[in-house]
Amino acid sequence: MRLPNQLTASGVSLDRLTEKCGVFGVYCPGTEAARLAYYGLWALQHRGQESSGIVSSDGHNLYDHIRSGLVAHAYAEEDFDGLKGHLAIGHNRYSTSGGPRECHSQPVIGPGKTLAFSHNGNLPTTTALESFLAEHGIGSDGLNDSEMMFAAIDYYTRQNLPLEQAVAKAYPLFQGAFSCLVMDREKLVAFRDECGIRPLSIGTLDGGWVVSSETCAFETIGAAYLRDVQPGELVVIEAKGLSGRQLTAPRPKLDIFEFVYFARPDSFIMRRRVNEVRRRLGVNLAREYPLRADVVVPVPDSAIPAALGYAQAAGIRFDHGLIKNRYIHRTFIRPTQRLRERDVQMKLNPLPEVLMGKRVVVIDDSIVRGTTTKQIVQMLFGAGAKAVHLLVSSPPVKFPDFYGINTPRQGDLIAARLSLEEIRRHVGADSLGYLSYDGMIAATGRSAKSFSTSCFDGVYPIGIAERAKEVLQVA
Question: Cα–Cα distance between 129 and 148 in angstroms, integer?
Fold first, then answer.
Protein backbone atom coordinates (compact mmCIF):
# COMPACT_ATOMS: atom_id res chain seq x y z
CA MET A 1 0.00 0.00 0.00
CA ARG A 2 1.61 3.23 -1.13
CA LEU A 3 1.13 5.29 2.01
CA PRO A 4 3.45 7.27 4.32
CA ASN A 5 5.71 4.78 6.05
CA GLN A 6 7.02 6.54 9.12
CA LEU A 7 3.95 7.03 11.32
CA THR A 8 1.26 4.92 12.88
CA ALA A 9 -2.38 5.82 12.41
CA SER A 10 -2.21 7.75 15.67
CA GLY A 11 0.78 9.70 14.45
CA VAL A 12 3.30 8.03 16.75
CA SER A 13 6.63 6.90 15.30
CA LEU A 14 7.07 3.14 15.31
CA ASP A 15 9.79 1.25 17.13
CA ARG A 16 8.83 -2.19 15.81
CA LEU A 17 8.76 -3.45 12.27
CA THR A 18 5.21 -4.26 11.25
CA GLU A 19 3.71 -6.20 8.39
CA LYS A 20 0.88 -4.61 6.49
CA CYS A 21 -1.56 -7.35 5.53
CA GLY A 22 -2.79 -10.92 5.65
CA VAL A 23 -4.94 -12.52 2.95
CA PHE A 24 -7.11 -15.62 3.05
CA GLY A 25 -9.26 -17.26 0.37
CA VAL A 26 -11.73 -20.16 0.26
CA TYR A 27 -13.25 -22.14 -2.59
CA CYS A 28 -15.14 -24.98 -0.97
CA PRO A 29 -18.50 -26.17 -2.37
CA GLY A 30 -21.07 -27.05 0.26
CA THR A 31 -19.60 -24.79 2.94
CA GLU A 32 -20.15 -21.32 4.30
CA ALA A 33 -16.93 -19.91 2.89
CA ALA A 34 -17.22 -16.63 4.80
CA ARG A 35 -17.17 -18.41 8.16
CA LEU A 36 -14.06 -20.32 7.15
CA ALA A 37 -12.47 -17.06 6.01
CA TYR A 38 -13.35 -15.51 9.37
CA TYR A 39 -11.43 -18.18 11.27
CA GLY A 40 -8.58 -17.91 8.79
CA LEU A 41 -8.38 -14.18 9.44
CA TRP A 42 -8.34 -14.85 13.19
CA ALA A 43 -5.20 -16.91 12.66
CA LEU A 44 -3.66 -14.10 10.60
CA GLN A 45 -4.52 -11.31 13.03
CA HIS A 46 -0.82 -10.64 13.69
CA ARG A 47 -0.35 -9.53 10.07
CA GLY A 48 -2.89 -6.72 10.19
CA GLN A 49 -4.83 -5.09 13.00
CA GLU A 50 -6.44 -1.96 11.56
CA SER A 51 -9.34 -3.39 9.58
CA SER A 52 -10.75 -6.70 8.41
CA GLY A 53 -13.02 -7.60 5.53
CA ILE A 54 -14.61 -10.55 3.73
CA VAL A 55 -16.22 -10.74 0.30
CA SER A 56 -18.17 -13.89 -0.62
CA SER A 57 -19.99 -15.28 -3.65
CA ASP A 58 -22.78 -17.79 -4.15
CA GLY A 59 -22.05 -18.02 -7.87
CA HIS A 60 -24.49 -15.25 -8.72
CA ASN A 61 -23.64 -12.22 -6.56
CA LEU A 62 -20.84 -10.83 -4.42
CA TYR A 63 -21.52 -9.94 -0.79
CA ASP A 64 -19.19 -7.84 1.35
CA HIS A 65 -18.55 -6.91 4.96
CA ILE A 66 -15.56 -4.67 5.72
CA ARG A 67 -15.00 -2.91 9.05
CA SER A 68 -12.23 -1.23 11.02
CA GLY A 69 -10.69 -2.89 14.04
CA LEU A 70 -9.56 -6.37 15.01
CA VAL A 71 -11.26 -9.48 13.65
CA ALA A 72 -13.00 -9.96 17.01
CA HIS A 73 -14.58 -6.51 16.69
CA ALA A 74 -15.25 -6.35 12.95
CA TYR A 75 -17.84 -9.15 12.73
CA ALA A 76 -21.05 -10.13 14.48
CA GLU A 77 -23.04 -13.35 14.06
CA GLU A 78 -25.70 -11.61 11.99
CA ASP A 79 -23.09 -10.37 9.51
CA PHE A 80 -22.63 -13.90 8.20
CA ASP A 81 -26.29 -14.11 7.19
CA GLY A 82 -25.41 -11.70 4.40
CA LEU A 83 -22.12 -13.33 3.40
CA LYS A 84 -23.48 -16.19 1.31
CA GLY A 85 -21.76 -18.78 -0.79
CA HIS A 86 -18.92 -21.25 -1.14
CA LEU A 87 -16.34 -18.74 -2.39
CA ALA A 88 -14.76 -15.96 -0.33
CA ILE A 89 -11.65 -13.87 0.15
CA GLY A 90 -10.65 -12.02 3.30
CA HIS A 91 -8.11 -9.43 4.31
CA ASN A 92 -6.56 -8.06 7.51
CA ARG A 93 -4.97 -4.68 7.01
CA TYR A 94 -2.17 -2.93 8.79
CA SER A 95 -1.80 0.62 7.52
CA THR A 96 0.58 3.42 8.24
CA SER A 97 -1.73 6.16 7.03
CA GLY A 98 -2.78 9.01 9.24
CA GLY A 99 -6.12 9.20 7.47
CA PRO A 100 -9.52 7.70 8.28
CA ARG A 101 -9.35 4.13 9.54
CA GLU A 102 -11.85 2.89 6.94
CA CYS A 103 -9.85 4.48 4.11
CA HIS A 104 -8.30 1.89 1.76
CA SER A 105 -9.67 -1.10 3.68
CA GLN A 106 -9.82 -4.37 1.76
CA PRO A 107 -10.89 -6.51 -0.01
CA VAL A 108 -11.27 -3.88 -2.71
CA ILE A 109 -14.65 -4.28 -4.37
CA GLY A 110 -15.91 -2.23 -7.31
CA PRO A 111 -19.24 -0.39 -7.45
CA GLY A 112 -20.70 -3.08 -9.73
CA LYS A 113 -19.72 -5.79 -7.23
CA THR A 114 -18.42 -8.12 -9.90
CA LEU A 115 -14.82 -8.36 -8.68
CA ALA A 116 -12.96 -8.30 -5.33
CA PHE A 117 -9.24 -8.05 -4.62
CA SER A 118 -6.88 -8.52 -1.64
CA HIS A 119 -3.18 -7.58 -1.61
CA ASN A 120 -0.31 -8.29 0.76
CA GLY A 121 2.83 -6.36 -0.09
CA ASN A 122 3.71 -3.00 -1.56
CA LEU A 123 4.52 -1.46 -4.94
CA PRO A 124 7.42 0.98 -4.52
CA THR A 125 6.49 2.59 -7.83
CA THR A 126 3.11 2.88 -9.52
CA THR A 127 4.25 4.93 -12.52
CA ALA A 128 3.34 2.24 -15.06
CA LEU A 129 -0.01 1.64 -13.41
CA GLU A 130 -0.87 5.33 -13.31
CA SER A 131 0.05 5.76 -16.97
CA PHE A 132 -2.03 2.75 -17.97
CA LEU A 133 -5.07 3.95 -16.05
CA ALA A 134 -4.74 7.48 -17.47
CA GLU A 135 -4.48 6.13 -21.03
CA HIS A 136 -7.78 4.30 -20.50
CA GLY A 137 -9.61 7.18 -18.86
CA ILE A 138 -9.50 5.74 -15.35
CA GLY A 139 -8.74 8.21 -12.59
CA SER A 140 -6.12 7.23 -10.02
CA ASP A 141 -6.16 10.24 -7.69
CA GLY A 142 -6.66 9.10 -4.12
CA LEU A 143 -6.04 5.45 -4.96
CA ASN A 144 -3.34 3.46 -3.25
CA ASP A 145 -1.31 0.78 -5.03
CA SER A 146 -3.78 -2.02 -4.22
CA GLU A 147 -6.72 -0.05 -5.61
CA MET A 148 -4.80 0.73 -8.79
CA MET A 149 -3.99 -2.96 -9.22
CA PHE A 150 -7.69 -3.72 -8.83
CA ALA A 151 -8.60 -1.03 -11.37
CA ALA A 152 -6.23 -2.51 -13.98
CA ILE A 153 -7.60 -6.04 -13.55
CA ASP A 154 -11.14 -4.71 -13.55
CA TYR A 155 -10.48 -2.88 -16.84
CA TYR A 156 -9.51 -6.11 -18.57
CA THR A 157 -12.48 -8.05 -17.15
CA ARG A 158 -14.72 -5.34 -18.61
CA GLN A 159 -13.15 -6.17 -21.97
CA ASN A 160 -14.78 -9.60 -21.51
CA LEU A 161 -11.56 -11.40 -20.65
CA PRO A 162 -11.83 -14.30 -18.19
CA LEU A 163 -10.51 -13.35 -14.76
CA GLU A 164 -7.23 -15.27 -15.07
CA GLN A 165 -6.52 -13.67 -18.47
CA ALA A 166 -7.30 -10.23 -17.07
CA VAL A 167 -4.77 -10.79 -14.29
CA ALA A 168 -2.16 -12.02 -16.79
CA LYS A 169 -2.65 -8.92 -18.96
CA ALA A 170 -2.37 -6.55 -16.00
CA TYR A 171 0.51 -8.41 -14.32
CA PRO A 172 3.40 -6.59 -16.12
CA LEU A 173 2.10 -3.30 -14.69
CA PHE A 174 2.69 -4.47 -11.10
CA GLN A 175 6.21 -3.42 -10.10
CA GLY A 176 6.93 -4.47 -6.54
CA ALA A 177 5.97 -7.07 -3.95
CA PHE A 178 2.55 -8.69 -4.07
CA SER A 179 0.84 -11.84 -2.89
CA CYS A 180 -2.74 -11.39 -4.07
CA LEU A 181 -6.17 -12.95 -4.20
CA VAL A 182 -8.84 -11.86 -6.66
CA MET A 183 -12.29 -13.33 -7.20
CA ASP A 184 -15.33 -12.90 -9.37
CA ARG A 185 -18.65 -14.69 -8.96
CA GLU A 186 -17.23 -18.07 -9.97
CA LYS A 187 -13.42 -18.16 -9.61
CA LEU A 188 -10.66 -17.56 -7.12
CA VAL A 189 -7.28 -16.51 -8.52
CA ALA A 190 -4.04 -16.27 -6.53
CA PHE A 191 -0.77 -14.79 -7.79
CA ARG A 192 2.64 -13.64 -6.52
CA ASP A 193 5.45 -11.40 -7.72
CA GLU A 194 8.40 -13.04 -9.44
CA CYS A 195 10.47 -13.05 -6.24
CA GLY A 196 7.73 -14.25 -3.88
CA ILE A 197 8.71 -11.59 -1.34
CA ARG A 198 5.60 -12.29 0.75
CA PRO A 199 4.45 -15.89 1.45
CA LEU A 200 1.29 -17.45 0.01
CA SER A 201 0.24 -21.09 0.43
CA ILE A 202 -2.51 -23.43 -0.78
CA GLY A 203 -4.35 -25.97 1.36
CA THR A 204 -7.08 -28.55 0.78
CA LEU A 205 -10.34 -28.85 2.71
CA ASP A 206 -13.35 -31.13 2.16
CA GLY A 207 -12.89 -31.35 -1.59
CA GLY A 208 -12.12 -27.65 -1.88
CA TRP A 209 -9.16 -25.33 -1.46
CA VAL A 210 -7.99 -22.52 0.78
CA VAL A 211 -5.23 -19.98 0.18
CA SER A 212 -3.47 -18.14 2.99
CA SER A 213 -0.62 -15.78 3.75
CA GLU A 214 0.54 -18.36 6.30
CA THR A 215 0.00 -22.07 6.86
CA CYS A 216 -0.96 -21.55 10.53
CA ALA A 217 -4.44 -20.64 9.30
CA PHE A 218 -4.87 -24.07 7.69
CA GLU A 219 -4.67 -25.89 11.00
CA THR A 220 -7.19 -23.47 12.50
CA ILE A 221 -9.90 -24.62 10.07
CA GLY A 222 -8.76 -28.22 9.61
CA ALA A 223 -7.22 -27.79 6.16
CA ALA A 224 -4.11 -29.64 4.96
CA TYR A 225 -1.15 -27.90 3.36
CA LEU A 226 -0.84 -28.69 -0.35
CA ARG A 227 1.86 -26.40 -1.74
CA ASP A 228 2.93 -22.78 -2.11
CA VAL A 229 1.88 -20.44 -4.87
CA GLN A 230 5.23 -20.18 -6.65
CA PRO A 231 6.93 -16.83 -7.30
CA GLY A 232 5.60 -15.49 -10.59
CA GLU A 233 2.78 -18.07 -10.68
CA LEU A 234 -0.94 -17.58 -11.26
CA VAL A 235 -3.26 -20.19 -9.71
CA VAL A 236 -6.92 -20.57 -10.70
CA ILE A 237 -9.44 -22.36 -8.49
CA GLU A 238 -12.88 -23.02 -9.98
CA ALA A 239 -15.52 -25.70 -10.42
CA LYS A 240 -13.30 -27.84 -12.63
CA GLY A 241 -10.45 -27.80 -10.13
CA LEU A 242 -7.12 -26.13 -9.48
CA SER A 243 -4.62 -25.15 -12.16
CA GLY A 244 -1.55 -22.97 -12.31
CA ARG A 245 0.80 -21.38 -14.80
CA GLN A 246 3.91 -19.25 -14.64
CA LEU A 247 3.39 -15.68 -15.74
CA THR A 248 7.09 -14.94 -15.44
CA ALA A 249 10.26 -16.82 -14.62
CA PRO A 250 10.59 -17.26 -10.85
CA ARG A 251 13.43 -15.55 -8.94
CA PRO A 252 12.73 -16.71 -5.36
CA LYS A 253 13.67 -14.03 -2.81
CA LEU A 254 11.42 -14.45 0.22
CA ASP A 255 11.75 -11.64 2.76
CA ILE A 256 13.84 -13.20 5.51
CA PHE A 257 12.02 -11.10 8.11
CA GLU A 258 9.17 -13.59 7.79
CA PHE A 259 11.45 -16.03 9.62
CA VAL A 260 12.98 -13.47 11.96
CA TYR A 261 9.81 -11.80 13.18
CA PHE A 262 6.63 -11.57 11.10
CA ALA A 263 5.26 -15.07 10.65
CA ARG A 264 3.57 -16.97 13.44
CA PRO A 265 5.98 -19.51 14.96
CA ASP A 266 3.66 -22.42 14.12
CA SER A 267 3.66 -21.60 10.39
CA PHE A 268 5.72 -23.45 7.80
CA ILE A 269 7.69 -21.35 5.32
CA MET A 270 9.87 -23.01 2.69
CA ARG A 271 8.87 -26.24 4.46
CA ARG A 272 10.62 -25.06 7.61
CA ARG A 273 8.74 -24.57 10.88
CA VAL A 274 9.26 -20.92 11.78
CA ASN A 275 9.64 -21.74 15.48
CA GLU A 276 12.56 -24.08 14.75
CA VAL A 277 14.33 -21.51 12.57
CA ARG A 278 14.01 -18.93 15.35
CA ARG A 279 15.37 -21.41 17.88
CA ARG A 280 18.39 -21.95 15.62
CA LEU A 281 18.86 -18.18 15.40
CA GLY A 282 19.36 -18.29 19.16
CA VAL A 283 21.71 -21.26 18.98
CA ASN A 284 23.88 -19.42 16.46
CA LEU A 285 23.76 -16.31 18.62
CA ALA A 286 25.15 -18.35 21.54
CA ARG A 287 28.01 -19.55 19.36
CA GLU A 288 28.87 -16.01 18.35
CA TYR A 289 28.38 -14.42 21.78
CA PRO A 290 29.21 -16.81 24.65
CA LEU A 291 28.52 -14.93 27.89
CA ARG A 292 28.77 -15.57 31.61
CA ALA A 293 25.30 -14.89 32.96
CA ASP A 294 22.64 -16.17 35.36
CA VAL A 295 19.47 -16.05 33.28
CA VAL A 296 18.33 -15.66 29.66
CA VAL A 297 15.20 -13.53 29.25
CA PRO A 298 13.26 -12.99 25.96
CA VAL A 299 11.45 -9.87 24.86
CA PRO A 300 8.03 -11.49 24.39
CA ASP A 301 6.60 -12.92 22.31
CA SER A 302 8.58 -13.09 19.08
CA ALA A 303 12.02 -13.52 20.70
CA ILE A 304 11.03 -16.48 22.90
CA PRO A 305 12.21 -19.26 20.50
CA ALA A 306 15.58 -17.54 19.95
CA ALA A 307 16.02 -17.07 23.70
CA LEU A 308 15.26 -20.75 24.30
CA GLY A 309 17.83 -21.71 21.67
CA TYR A 310 20.43 -19.42 23.20
CA ALA A 311 19.81 -20.69 26.73
CA GLN A 312 20.02 -24.33 25.64
CA ALA A 313 23.23 -23.83 23.65
CA ALA A 314 24.86 -21.65 26.33
CA GLY A 315 23.80 -23.78 29.28
CA ILE A 316 22.19 -20.80 31.03
CA ARG A 317 18.81 -20.90 32.74
CA PHE A 318 15.88 -19.56 30.69
CA ASP A 319 13.08 -17.64 32.39
CA HIS A 320 10.34 -15.17 31.62
CA GLY A 321 11.61 -11.97 33.19
CA LEU A 322 9.28 -9.77 31.16
CA ILE A 323 5.54 -10.46 31.07
CA LYS A 324 3.52 -9.17 28.13
CA ASN A 325 -0.02 -7.87 28.42
CA ARG A 326 -1.56 -9.77 25.51
CA TYR A 327 -4.74 -7.71 25.57
CA ILE A 328 -3.08 -4.51 24.42
CA HIS A 329 -3.40 -3.98 20.68
CA ARG A 330 -3.20 -0.92 18.50
CA THR A 331 -5.04 2.10 19.84
CA PHE A 332 -6.34 5.13 17.96
CA ILE A 333 -6.72 7.22 21.10
CA ARG A 334 -3.88 9.70 21.23
CA PRO A 335 -2.14 9.44 24.61
CA THR A 336 -0.54 12.36 26.38
CA GLN A 337 3.23 12.62 26.07
CA ARG A 338 3.60 11.33 29.62
CA LEU A 339 1.48 8.26 28.87
CA ARG A 340 3.22 7.74 25.54
CA GLU A 341 6.52 7.52 27.38
CA ARG A 342 4.99 4.77 29.54
CA ASP A 343 3.79 2.77 26.53
CA VAL A 344 6.33 -0.02 27.10
CA GLN A 345 5.27 -0.30 30.74
CA MET A 346 1.70 -0.79 29.55
CA LYS A 347 2.80 -3.73 27.42
CA LEU A 348 5.59 -5.28 29.51
CA ASN A 349 6.04 -5.84 33.21
CA PRO A 350 9.30 -7.11 34.75
CA LEU A 351 9.47 -9.89 37.32
CA PRO A 352 11.92 -8.77 40.05
CA GLU A 353 12.05 -12.33 41.45
CA VAL A 354 13.70 -13.46 38.20
CA LEU A 355 15.94 -10.42 37.73
CA MET A 356 17.05 -9.25 41.17
CA GLY A 357 20.85 -9.41 41.52
CA LYS A 358 21.19 -11.43 38.28
CA ARG A 359 23.41 -11.05 35.26
CA VAL A 360 20.74 -11.02 32.56
CA VAL A 361 21.03 -11.87 28.87
CA VAL A 362 18.01 -10.31 27.18
CA ILE A 363 17.19 -11.51 23.65
CA ASP A 364 15.25 -9.45 21.10
CA ASP A 365 14.60 -10.19 17.43
CA SER A 366 15.53 -6.73 16.10
CA ILE A 367 16.19 -3.13 17.06
CA VAL A 368 14.55 -0.46 14.93
CA ARG A 369 14.70 3.05 16.41
CA GLY A 370 16.07 1.95 19.77
CA THR A 371 13.54 3.82 21.91
CA THR A 372 11.71 0.72 23.13
CA THR A 373 14.97 -1.16 23.61
CA LYS A 374 16.31 1.60 25.84
CA GLN A 375 13.16 1.49 27.96
CA ILE A 376 13.39 -2.30 28.30
CA VAL A 377 17.01 -2.12 29.47
CA GLN A 378 16.06 0.56 32.01
CA MET A 379 13.15 -1.60 33.15
CA LEU A 380 15.43 -4.60 33.75
CA PHE A 381 17.87 -2.54 35.79
CA GLY A 382 14.96 -0.99 37.65
CA ALA A 383 13.80 -4.49 38.64
CA GLY A 384 17.18 -5.21 40.20
CA ALA A 385 19.28 -6.73 37.39
CA LYS A 386 22.99 -6.67 38.23
CA ALA A 387 24.02 -6.56 34.55
CA VAL A 388 22.10 -6.50 31.26
CA HIS A 389 23.64 -8.02 28.13
CA LEU A 390 21.51 -7.31 25.06
CA LEU A 391 21.65 -9.76 22.15
CA VAL A 392 19.68 -9.47 18.90
CA SER A 393 18.78 -12.53 16.81
CA SER A 394 19.22 -10.70 13.48
CA PRO A 395 21.79 -8.30 11.99
CA PRO A 396 21.44 -4.50 12.35
CA VAL A 397 18.49 -2.99 10.44
CA LYS A 398 20.16 -0.27 8.37
CA PHE A 399 17.91 0.21 5.35
CA PRO A 400 14.24 1.01 4.74
CA ASP A 401 11.87 -1.54 3.26
CA PHE A 402 9.71 -0.94 0.19
CA TYR A 403 8.00 -4.34 -0.04
CA GLY A 404 5.30 -4.19 2.63
CA ILE A 405 7.11 -3.68 5.94
CA ASN A 406 6.43 -0.51 7.84
CA THR A 407 9.90 0.84 8.55
CA PRO A 408 10.71 4.36 9.68
CA ARG A 409 12.75 6.71 7.51
CA GLN A 410 16.32 5.49 7.18
CA GLY A 411 17.54 8.38 9.32
CA ASP A 412 15.39 7.07 12.18
CA LEU A 413 16.93 3.58 12.04
CA ILE A 414 19.42 3.58 14.89
CA ALA A 415 21.86 1.19 13.17
CA ALA A 416 21.97 3.43 10.09
CA ARG A 417 23.43 6.34 12.05
CA LEU A 418 25.22 4.90 15.11
CA SER A 419 28.06 2.44 15.57
CA LEU A 420 27.65 -0.70 17.68
CA GLU A 421 29.28 0.96 20.67
CA GLU A 422 27.16 4.09 20.25
CA ILE A 423 24.00 1.96 20.18
CA ARG A 424 25.12 0.13 23.31
CA ARG A 425 25.65 3.42 25.13
CA HIS A 426 22.33 4.76 23.86
CA VAL A 427 20.30 1.82 25.15
CA GLY A 428 22.33 1.55 28.36
CA ALA A 429 23.26 -2.16 28.16
CA ASP A 430 26.50 -3.59 29.56
CA SER A 431 27.13 -5.27 26.24
CA LEU A 432 25.41 -5.53 22.86
CA GLY A 433 25.66 -8.09 20.09
CA TYR A 434 23.82 -8.71 16.82
CA LEU A 435 23.66 -12.08 15.09
CA SER A 436 25.84 -12.08 11.99
CA TYR A 437 24.35 -12.16 8.51
CA ASP A 438 25.85 -15.61 7.94
CA GLY A 439 24.49 -16.83 11.28
CA MET A 440 21.01 -15.68 10.31
CA ILE A 441 21.14 -17.36 6.90
CA ALA A 442 22.52 -20.60 8.35
CA ALA A 443 19.57 -20.85 10.75
CA THR A 444 17.14 -21.12 7.81
CA GLY A 445 18.88 -24.11 6.25
CA ARG A 446 18.69 -22.36 2.88
CA SER A 447 21.19 -20.41 0.79
CA ALA A 448 21.40 -16.62 0.97
CA LYS A 449 20.24 -16.36 -2.66
CA SER A 450 16.80 -17.64 -1.54
CA PHE A 451 16.07 -14.45 0.38
CA SER A 452 15.54 -10.75 0.20
CA THR A 453 17.65 -9.22 2.97
CA SER A 454 17.21 -5.61 1.92
CA CYS A 455 16.70 -4.23 5.44
CA PHE A 456 20.16 -5.51 6.35
CA ASP A 457 22.20 -4.99 3.18
CA GLY A 458 20.32 -2.43 1.06
CA VAL A 459 20.05 -4.83 -1.90
CA TYR A 460 16.55 -4.64 -3.41
CA PRO A 461 15.81 -7.64 -5.67
CA ILE A 462 12.81 -5.90 -7.25
CA GLY A 463 13.57 -2.41 -8.55
CA ILE A 464 12.39 0.45 -6.34
CA ALA A 465 12.56 3.09 -9.13
CA GLU A 466 12.26 6.66 -7.84
CA ARG A 467 12.30 5.46 -4.21
CA ALA A 468 16.02 4.68 -4.60
CA LYS A 469 16.82 8.32 -3.81
CA GLU A 470 15.54 7.69 -0.26
CA VAL A 471 18.29 5.13 0.40
CA LEU A 472 21.67 6.16 1.75
CA GLN A 473 24.55 3.72 1.86
CA VAL A 474 25.89 3.10 5.36
CA ALA A 475 28.86 1.21 6.74
Answer: 7
